[in-house]
Structures are given as structure tokens and as C-alpha cells.
Design brief:
Strand content of chain A: under 5%
Structural class of chain A: mainly alpha
Shape of chain A: globular
Number of domains of chain A: 1
Number of domains of chain B: 1
Shape of chain B: elongated
Helix content of chain B: over 70%
Number of strands of chain B: 0
Helix content of chain A: over 70%
Structural class of chain B: mainly alpha
Number of helices of chain A: 7
Strand content of chain B: under 5%
Oligomer: heterodimer
Number of strands of chain A: 0
Distance between the termini of chain A: 36 Å
Number of helices of chain B: 7
Order of helices and strands of chain B: HHHHHHH
Largest sheet of chain A: none
């Protein structure tokens, strides 16, 4: 094929290079999600433990605050260890964008959940549905940026859970919550980490 | 200044070019937001119309005010986007695509959330209203990070502050006032500001990413 040149001076090679760069950025963004897959697992477990504790200690007001704060402490320690190990991922535009999505979602959830907890509004159905919607929205934006179908499915599952919360009898809301946490948090985290691990092994074999 | 070369062979000119490209992408992203900010104005007016209908003209099918106005808003947005696309071509810059992803996914999430809550009559709960404001704030905050746009970051903070204030005030009257302020006034003012700030953008035609 000839190396045609467009009106703006862009050659075919330029376009091929740009596509390759975009693909590399997308792959790097997915890898970074895999490297931080443990955070999904951590928060899935934190939420499941919180539910278990509030089932065992229904009168205790401090179950959720203590569990959530413990989650943050573990996450910060994990990130500090990650950073110290020298295994901190390289950052490109897409990775930074995805990081921005998760950071802003984190802030939104904290600003939503903390006052709701203090004002005892967390028993409302819309509270749970909104949290599912936030998580679905973050996954959906990340899925579009990284062109990642599996993450798009997870976004769909979060949203489906949010809708179901409104429609099912109140007793089943807790079941939906547990199912979402197991599938969309823990299993997705494991899946993302497994993908990253598989890639790392393939890379090692390639270099060997 | 000398044209130094880094370890990986990147020259100063390369870096200057990359920075220029990033700045151009950010400028295009903001222009894209400016070109589409009529949607903020439209939705501010839609919310205002629904609120006024429900508050002052309840006898004229007031309980249908929100479903009708929201559906009209969706139809007008889609028609407007279609006309805009026909006139200006399709956007393909990478940063614009990311901003589009944010608003597109927010719209989808919001549509699902609002429709389900209205259908099941849970739309009176405080946490429902706060959820809306938090989602708007989240979309603005993400877009502000992408576009390094302080004003949009401020708008995000205003939405989030409104959400927190609803929980803290814990009263129907305060919720109405905050909702009116956030969903109508902030939305319209930001839309007008973005239109004024980025009026003649080239949009995002022709991928430059």
C-alpha cells in the first residue's frame, strides 16, 4: 500500500503510529486496573464484613464507621507498600484519566455516605441504589475509556442491581447487596489481577 | 537554552511539542464542552419548568410534570445533538471522547436511576435527591480533572456541597430550595458561562490525539 498523504500532511505511517500509541495506552490502562485489582477485592470484603458485623451486632452504631475506616487504613498501607516496592505503574493519559474517575467516585461516595450515616438516612432504599449507580457510572466511564467489555458488563451489573433495589421487596435488598459485592467487587478484582498476572508471566516467558 | 537530550532520547523540542499537543487537546476539550453547554441550559430550564408546573399548576396534571418534562428534555437533547452533528461533523479527539464518555455514562446512569425511582415512587426520599446531585458533581469533577478546568471543579464542589446540605438540613423545604438552586440556577449559569467562555471552538473534528 502506498504511503499516502492527507491534506493536513498526516501520512499513513503517522496514523499507524497514532493507532499503535492509542492501543498501547489502552493496554497500559487495563494493566494498571489489574495492578490495583486488590483494591476492588479489599472494598468488596470490607463491605461484606460490615454487613456480617451489622447482622451479628444489630444495635451497634460503630460497626460501619470502624469497618470503613479500617478499609481506608489497609488501602493506604497497601498503596504505600506498592509504591515502596518500586512496582508503581507508569502513567499515561488514559491511566491518569481512569485514576481521576476512581478518585472522584471515591470522593463522591464519601461525601454521600458520611452525612447519610450521621443523619441516619442510610435505611432509605434510594441510598443503596445511588451507591450502586455511582459504582456503575465509574465502571462504565472506565470501560469506555479502556474499551473493556468485561468492565462494561460489571457496570451493567451495578446498574441492574440499582434498579432491582427499587423493585424487589425490602428483605431482598441485602441479598442484592451481597451478590453485587461478591461479583462486581471481589470477582472483578480477582479477574483483573489474573489478567495482569497472565500478561506478566507471558512477558517473562517471552524474555526468557 | 540548549537542546538537551534525555536518557530515552527525548529532546527538548519533543517535550515542547508534546506539551503543546496536550494543551491543544485540553483547549479542544473545553471548546467541546462549550459547544455542548446548551444542554446544561436546556436541562436547567427543563427542571425549572417541571418544578414550576408541579408547584404552581398542580391541578393541571401536576403529578405528570416531571415525567413529561424529563421526556421532553431527552427528546430535545437528542434532536439538538442530531442537528449539531449534521452541521459540525463527528467528534473524534481522544480527550473529547473521554469527556463524551463521562457525560454519556452519567446520562445513562441518571436515566436509569430517575426512571426506576419515579416508577416505584421512591423519588421523595432525601437520599434520592442527594444521589442526583452527587452524580452531577462526580461528572463535573471528572471532566474538570480531564480538562484541568478550575471553574468546572468549583461547580462540582457546589453540587457536592448541596448534597451534603440536604442531608444536614433534613427538611423538605430546604431540599426544595437547594434542588432549585442546584438543578436550575447552577446548571443554567454554568451552561451560559461555558458558552460565553468557549464560543468559537473548532470543536473536536479530526482526531489529533
Amino acid at each position: 500500500m502506498t504511503n499516502m498523504e492527507r491534506e493536513d500532511g498526516t501520512t499513513r505511517d503517522d496514523l499507524v503510529q497514532r493507532v499503535a500509541l492509542m492501543e498501547a495506552m489502552i493496554a497500559e490502562g487495563r494493566r494498571n486496573t489489574g495492578r490495583f485489582g486488590w483494591i476492588f477485592i479489599l472494598w468488596g470484603l470490607v463491605c461484606l464484613i460490615g454487613i456480617g458485623e451489622s447482622y451479628l451486632l444489630p444495635q451497634s452504631y460503630w460497626v460501619w464507621p470502624i469497618t470503613i475506616v479500617s478499609g481506608f487504613v489497609i488501602q493506604f498501607i497497601g498503596i504505600a507498600m506498592h509504591r515502596r516496592s518500586g512496582n508503581w505503574p507508569s502513567e499515561n493519559l488514559k491511566s491518569r484519566s481512569v485514576a481521576a474517575v476512581w478518585r472522584m467516585m471515591g470522593i463522591a461516595i464519601i461525601l454521600y455516605a458520611a452525612p447519610a450515616g450521621v443523619t441516619h438516612t442510610i435505611h432509605q432504599i434510594a441510598y443503596i441504589a445511588a451507591i450502586f449507580m455511582f459504582l456503575g457510572m465509574a465502571h462504565a466511564i472506565s470501560a469506555v475509556i479502556l474499551r473493556w467489555r468485561a468492565q462494561g458488563v460489571v457496570a451493567g451489573l451495578w446498574w441492574a442491581g440499582g434498579v432491582a433495589t427499587y423493585f424487589v421487596p425490602r428483605n431482598y435488598v441485602i441479598t442484592i447487596y451481597v451478590v453485587e459485592m461478591v461479583i462486581c467487587m471481589v470477582l472483578f478484582g480477582v479477574y483483573a489481577m489474573w489478567l495482569e498476572r497472565r500478561r506478566a508471566v507471558a512477558l517473562e516467558l517471552h524474555h526468557a | 537554552m540548549a537542546n538537551f537530550e534525555a536518557d530515552d532520547g527525548t529532546t527538548r523540542d519533543d517535550l515542547v511539542q508534546r506539551v503543546a499537543l496536550m494543551e491543544a487537546m485540553i483547549a479542544e476539550g473545553r471548546q467541546y464542552t462549550g459547544r455542548n453547554s446548551w444542554i446544561f441550559v436546556l436541562w436547567g430550564l427543563v427542571d425549572l419548568a417541571a418544578w414550576a408546573w408541579q408547584s404552581y399548576f398542580w391541578r393541571f396534571g401536576g403529578r405528570w410534570a416531571w415525567p413529561i418534562c424529563l421526556t421532553a428534555g431527552v427528546v430535545l437533547t437528542l434532536a439538538g445533538k442530531l442537528m449539531q452533528r449534521r452541521r459540525q461533523g463527528y467528534s473524534s479527539n481522544d480527550l473529547c471522547s473521554r469527556v463524551m464518555a463521562v457525560w454519556g455514562m452519567m446520562g445513562l446512569a441518571m436515566g436509569i436511576y430517575v426512571a426506576s425511582a419515579m416508577w416505584t415512587h421512591f423519588d421523595w426520599q432525601f437520599s434520592y435527591i442527594v444521589g442526583l446531585l452527587m452524580m452531577f458533581g462526580m461528572a463535573h469533577a471528572i471532566s474538570a480533572m480531564f480538562l484541568r478546568w478550575r471553574m468546572q471543579g468549583l461547580v462540582a464542589a457546589v453540587y457536592w456541597a448541596g448534597g451534603v446540605a440536604i442531608f444536614v438540613c433534613n427538611s423538605g423545604r430546604a431540599t426544595n430550595v437547594i434542588m432549585l438552586f442546584e438543578m436550575c440556577i447552577v446548571m443554567i449559569l454554568f451552561g451560559l458561562y461555558a458558552m460565553w467562555r468557549e464560543p468559537n471552538g473548532s470543536g473536536c473534528k479530526g482526531g489529533r490525539a
